[in-house]
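Sharing a chain and its predicted structure for anyone who wants a worked example. Both blocks are below, sequence first, tokens second.
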Amino acid sequence: MKYCPVCHSEQEVLLIQKEETYLMRGEPFTIDVTICACAHCGEEIMTEEYDDDNLRKAYAKYRTRHGLLQPEEIKAVRK
């Protein structure tokens, strides 16, 4: 259950998979994201957990496009 700013109460949430485009350093990147939506009114609800994961996916796609190392690759090099 999460607080819905439209319903002004705690509501059940639905996890929705969809494509969204993020602008990363001025470049558009389309990724598959997971968002929470209020089961009562359908309003998208911001959640730190899913929002952070979606941003990580977008940055990973940016790094891949530009030939940059991913965080796990940097950790492996350090070891």
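Comments welcome. The chain has two helices and five strands.
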